[in-house]
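Table 4 source record.
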Amino acid sequence: MVSDHVEIAERYVIELWEERDLDVLSALVDEDYVLREPLCLLEGHDALAERLRDTTWGDVMIIIEDVIASGEHVVVRQTWQGVQQGAFYGIDATHERVMLDVVHVLTITEGRVVEDAMYYDVYALFEQLGALPSVDKLAAPKRLAPVLRLVP
């Protein structure tokens, strides 16, 4: 059972999120699917299909780093890369390649993904798109000099 869930999770990440193969959507994803991610909440099979048709990100490449399964839950840690080809949250296309570490916490029931809790660093995403200053360039707060007290 766990090995089946691992196979479903790997297909979900590669065939849907990387290859955007909508022909496997019905086989892998439940009709009442829910996606929770830092920037949105999607509910339903059709909402995911619409998201996968979106062309904001092109030349997507995903490398699965780790897969951990227990019962109906599978955690997939991946490195995601894509080129911003369209407007994204008010940021015009930069045609820059973005790289993110992404974690999916999937719930799989009866051979289909019913929920995906996706986690990634939103600041890193917007920083790479030039919408936020680099963490390296942020001013560090001034530190006070330590106070030495002699206690009798």
